[in-house]
Each structure stands twice: as structure tokens, then as C-alpha cells.
Amino acid sequence: MMGLTASSIFEFLNKNSVIHLDRYEVFDRKFSLLRKSVRQIIGNFRETDDNDGHEAANQLQSMLSEWLTLPLPFDTSVIERLSCLGSTSYFRQRWGHQMGTFYEAAQQAAHDLVGEENPVECIVREHLLRMQNEQTNFRIFCQRPAVPIFNQVVTAGGGNALRMDSFIHSPSGYRDSPPFDELLKVGPLRSRGWGAIPDAILTAPRFRKLIQVVWSGCKDEPDFGYDPVTRSAATDDSQHNQNSQSSIACHLKTKWMPTSIRKGDDPDYIPDEDEFQLFKTWNQERIHNERRAVLVQIDEGQGILYPPLSKLLCFDPMEPDSSCITYHIPGETHVEDTFIIRPVLDDPRSTGARARHGRLSRAWKEQLRKKYRANPRGLIRELDKQGLRLLRLDVALIHWMKPPTTVIHAPQQKRHFEILLRVLAPDFTELNSRGYSTEAVYEHAWREICHSRGEAIHAGFMNNVQTEEQFCSILTAMIPQIRATANAQDGFSLALPDGHPLEGLALFNRVRAVEEGFRVPSSELHLAHELSKAEQWRA
Quick check: pTM over 0.70? Predict the structure, then answer.
């Protein structure tokens, strides 16, 4: 859909010179206790040099951010999310008495919440049902994975499932949206990170009313929507920073009519700390080593992070053969529903076997499944004894058992993978016809994982024009095979045919979604990551 013209936007603003803002600030005593305990745990983890502590902090930060920006129910999932840290006794032994006390308080608060109504969920349901009954033209701004959550909220109240065009997920989605009546947003107005929303909702509103629901203490960004040209000189900056509607800018032809509504089980509550400001402070020290990135989601749990303006080689099944293989820039040109193509090329200097995607991983994954089914506790004890110590090793093992697709689920670190293979002792005899040593086979198995994640793919390919052109030429000859496979699968690999200067594989992944707003260490760019891991890099 083409974006609206500037004249049509101004026409809408002239007809709707007053925009209403209903801002609900919600307090719940038990949830406040949970927030406080989790904040304390994250803060202590951030001060440690322990990698496991940093990993746990990232998981907890993502979890807390979800709770603060989505209308999630207070059910057993609250307890289950906390369980990633293990039992209370283990946690206390691993991290000390004070941390154990914080964890115990968080667990108690989580148990106390189960079965109670989430007041944010209730407010969102009330407005969704009202707008459906009144046939109001409305939109919900949220991340794409949150759609089922909002649908669950409204259908639990007897409403109808929401149409996909009721949601806006990105700045381009807002830019291309025609005017509507009401916009619903859960969480503070922030231009980056969790629950981010474009500041155009203030500088160029396309609605008559904004309904914002936030937990107590969660402030809008002080300069969200700030426009030094159009902002009124009469704005009081000291009040601007303190007011709950602090980010509502004053525009020449648009007047905002804010209404603040406090909801909760304690009318005299003291607002919680602003976790998003804390997260921003904690993240500042790492930012100078990071680069902006765009996340390209390739399946339900995986995504690849690319620098802005990256040229991605894509196959578009909707285009004719003459133009179906071409380059796209995520965030700038349409990429969704195309297939990104990644090469896994054999090193011509190598005497090893040609790349066969997932060949070795199938063997060790089958052995992992057998040993886990036979004695899961014994396997976990042995791996821990050998030095493979992760916060939730049992969950990780189940994850690693997943069959190899275009991405092979495996330990993130090479030393952890080597420990896993030593304990599993998989039989690679049938796959090792050349009689390589055990160490060499393990090295091949690790290289197979690295290739699936994108390591060693980008380097030496995108900067080599000749190799790039040869690869595209081979793919063009394979278009009939690519089309047939793409019709049946969202992710697949195809071997490059013999008789060409390049040997290896081409990995294809259908693009589910594209998200901006990440800052990532350079070493993590161009690689496939679990979406849960990528969340730690939201800027």
C-alpha cells in the first residue's frame, strides 16, 4: 500500500484539531512486589563478571519487559517464566543468600498473583469490547508476536477475534495506514526497545483518540515526539519531565486533551521505579561496542540480525523468473514473504567432504534423544560434571533435540558443544568413510552448526563480486527446483549442482517479519539467533 500524501494528512489534522488521550496508570500491590524483586535480581546480575549471570539478566529483562508492555494474564505462566532460574535452593547456593532472598520473594509474589485478574488486561478487554460493539474503526500498536495475546484478551470476554488489519506493527505500517478513530497502546511511549512506537503518532496523528495503558512508574520518553520547530515556546520543561503526559508535544494545529486515570488496589500507592529507564542506564555501557541492526525473523523462533541498508539476496515466488532472484534492503524494500538466500560454500582448498547440511547433526541429535529418554537426570548430572553448566540445562537439551532445519539448534559455545559430544559419544562411523580422527569429526560437526548460523558465510562472499555473480548465476539455473520446493516448505536447503565453479549449498528461509531498533555487537551480525536471545539487544 502506498503511503498517504502530506496534503491528506494535513487535511485530517485540520478536521480533527483536538486529539484526546486517555492515559491509564495501573497499580497492583502483588505485581509491584514481583517487579521490585526481579529488578533487584537483574541489578545484581549486571554487576557480576559471570557470563551465566549476564545471560540470566537478559532473560529476566525480556520477561519483565513483556509483562510491562502486554496484557498478559496472571496465570501459572508467571511462575513458569521465573523457573528458568532453577529451584530456590539451587539459586541460593549458586548466587548467595541475598540473591536467594530476592528470588524467594519473586517466587512468592508470582504464586500470589496466579488466579487474580490482571487490571491491565481488564482495561484492554473493556475498550476492545466497547470498540467492537460501537463498530469503532480502531488500531492496536504492538509487536507482531503479540497478536495472539490481544486476541485471547478479547475472545475471553465474548468478543470477536481481531482482524489482522486491526494491528499496526511498524513505522511503515503506521505511515501507510489511512485515518482511523482510536489507537490502543499498552506501555509507555518510547521510540526504541520493548513496545517501541513511532513518534509520528504525536507529530502526525491519524486518529481522534489515543488510549494508553501503563503500569505505575513507566514513563514516556521525555522527548518522545519532540519537534523543536513546532513545539510551543510556552512549554514548561520542568513540568515536561515530571508529568505523566510528559511526551505529548504541542503542535501548531493539533491540540491534545489528556486525561489521566489511576487504577489499582491502593489509591495512595507510590509509583514503582521505571524499569525501562533502568534498562537504558544498564545498557549504556555496552552501546559504544555495538551497531544498529535490523532483525529479520525467519521462523517462529529464529532471526538474523543485519546492519541497516544491508543488501539481502532474496527469492520472491510472486515474481517472474526474470526478476524473482534479486536484492532487497530490509526495512526499506518489501522483504516479508520472500526467501532470503544464504550460501554455504565449500572451501576449494579443503580436502574434507562436501557440505551436506545437517548430516552430522542428525547423528548426535539422535544419540541425545536416546540418552535423554533413558536417563535425563543422569545425563544432566554428567554434563554438569564435565563442565557444561547452563541455567536450565534440561530445557536446553530439549531444544537441541529439535531436528536440523536451515538452522541447527545446538550449544552457543564450541567448548560446550565438545563436552556434549564427549558425553554422548555418537557413532559417526557411517558418515566418516575417510577415517578422520574423532577430533576432526567433532570439528566438522561444529563447522556444520556455524554454517547454519551464518558464520563464515558473509565473510568472503558479499565482498567478493565474482563469487557473488557466480552464485546468482547458478541459482538462476535452479529456479524451477527452487519454486517447487518453496511451494511446500518455508525453510530448506538445496545442493549446488556439479559442474560449476562453486560447490556447496544454498539455504532458503521465508521471511516472517522485519523489525528495527536493535544494537548488536559486530560479531553477532549476519548470524541466526534465537529470538529470545535477540531480545537482549533491543535498543
Answer: no
